[in-house]
Design a protein that fits this description.
This protein is of the alpha/beta class and about 475 residues long. The protein is built from ten helices and 24 strands. Helix 5 links the parallel strand 13 and strand 14. The protein is elongated, with a radius of gyration of 24 Å.
Length: about 475
């Protein structure tokens, strides 16, 4: 359950320099993050991947190796050892924050042995279209985890546990090979005809052995780590019924809510609604349509700001929306690059942090910068987090009545001393909006907490004030 004004921090970016010490660095930052108003931390995938010490986490090899076994060229993962990971989770909890694990179950990579099996090639553009006769292929599908020697689990993976792969080890051919007697799942995204296959050795979620092993592993993982929730990777490629069952099993077994948010990467709000319906609302979803609305607004001066929430999850199903500005996939150089322009970042974060709906997720690369691309931290992001924690309470009044000047106010509440605020955003020249903050502020003076506007605003007897904003900017007005 998200805490009132709770905020998630996605605690990594793609090019993070870690020297296999990140869990320790994060442990030392726990109190600092808590003070900022972070209430939950989404940690990067913690298990051994095909890239060993350089693996960001999505090329999963061994889910049971949390930096404990000498596999893929190292004992520690990119982020550190198992012991350091467990200690990090404990330190974050002691600082009052929840921890969410990044769960990557769609595929495996880096098999220990090759198998020769019958398969049929399918078209890259339409995965339903078979383009060759059945042939024998040599594929990397046998996972025995020799470095772990069956500790924690004696389950070994072979080709029957997968549906397909994109590489023939005998010929070096890159193509999608669908294995004999296998069919793609139907409750997946319809991009490319059927988007069951994404990458690597694609898990077969119609196979009871696969489902049981994933459930067994999930229980082991939660027991071992004491994690509070999950970020579910690539859900649009996985049979919807699987995560419905998996989450139900975990919650029943541990008798805990175990918050979860799924990554269903689509701009089509109808697909997000459909997925939520297919899993009976068992998870929240990232509000991908809102991210793209923010990106468009940041790059197009003629964008209609009054429609920033059109066809977004936070508008249409706010209790299931995890809002975000950017993440590790949208940052420069990554597969879904769609980075919100730096001049609009403050406005974008005001939109997700200072309103009543949605569960916002702040990106590590925005909070601390991305040295790899010489990207500085977002100016005033810490101030915006503080404003969310201290001021963003009470009844909300929206003023989305102009395509280039939008605003809203929060009246504040009795539980948070001097809470309440007014926000004005523009993508054009400087302007102002007359907005209601509440009669209790009559005669009071408001100032811009972001210091983007030097004026002061005096609240009239009827609770209204004329709040200003400078060119292509945002101002957050609070009681002086």
């Amino acid at each position: 359950m998200k805490k009132i004004n709770g905020t998630i921090l996605q605690c990594f970016e793609w090019y993070l320099e870690t020297n296999q010490e990140f869990w320790n660095i994060l442990s030392n930052r726990a109190q600092e993050l808590s003070k900022l108003g972070i209430t939950a931390v989404w940690l990067p995938p913690a298990y051994k991947g095909v890239g060993g010490k350089d693996e960001v986490g999505y090329g999963v090899y061994d889910l049971y190796d949390l930096g404990e076994f000498n596999q893929k060229g190292s004992i520690k993962t990119k982020y550190g050892s198992k012991e350091e990971y467990l200690n990090c989770i404990m330190m974050l909890k002691q600082a009052g924050m929840e921890t969410y694990a990044d769960i990557v179950l769609n595929h495996k990579m880096g098999a220990d042995k090759i198998q020769t099996i019958p398969a049929i090639k399918v078209d890259w553009g339409n995965h339903n279209l078979e383009i060759a006769n059945q042939e024998k292929v040599k594929v990397a599908t046998k996972f025995t985890f020799p470095g772990r020697k069956h500790k924690y689990s004696d389950f070994e993976w072979n080709w029957t546990h997968f549906k397909g792969i994109d590489y023939n080890n005998e010929t070096g051919e890159q193509a999608i090979f669908k294995f004999k007697n296998k069919e793609w799942s139907q409750t997946v995204d319809e991009e490319f005809g059927n988007f069951d296959y994404l990458m690597g050795a694609d898990l077969d979620f119609d196979n009871p052995e696969v489902i049981n092993e994933c459930i067994t592993w999930g229980k082991w993982y939660i027991e071992m780590t004491k994690i509070d929730g999950f970020r579910l990777d690539a859900v649009k490629h996985i049979n919807a019924s699987f995560y419905k069952k998996w989450l139900e099993e975990m919650r029943n077994y541990f008798n805990k809510e175990l918050f979860s948010v799924g990554e269903y990467w689509s701009t089509d709000i109808k697909k997000l609604h459909r997925y939520l319906s297919e899993i009976d609302g068992a998870t929240s979803l990232f509000d991908v349509p809102l991210h793209y609305n923010l990106e468009k607004a940041s790059k197009d001066e003629s964008a209609d700001l009054s429609k920033i929430f059109e066809e977004t999850l936070v508008k249409e199903n706010p209790t299931k929306a995890v809002t975000f500005v950017d993440n590790h996939d949208t940052q420069p150089g990554q597969s879904l690059e769609s980075f919100v322009d730096k001049d609009f970042k403050q406005s974008a974060y005001s939109i997700i942090l200072l309103r009543e709906d949605g569960y916002p997720c702040v990106f590590y690369g925005d909070l601390y910068g991305i040295p790899h691309n010489n990207i500085e931290p977002v100016k005033n992001l810490e101030t915006l987090l503080e404003l969310r924690k201290q001021k963003a309470y009470g009844i909300q009044h929206d003023y989305f009545d102009n395509p280039n000047y939008i605003g809203w106010t929060r009246e504040g509440d009795e539980n948070h001393l001097r809470s309440g605020l007014a926000v004005v955003i523009t993508n054009q020249s400087k302007g102002e909006k007359c907005m209601y903050v509440g009669e209790k502020y009559a005669g009071k003076t408001f100032i811009d907490a972001l210091e983007n506007c030097e004026d002061e605003v005096h609240i009239q007897e009827d609770g209204y004030g004329v709040f200003k904003v400078n060119e292509k900017s945002v101002s957050v007005w609070v009681e002086k």
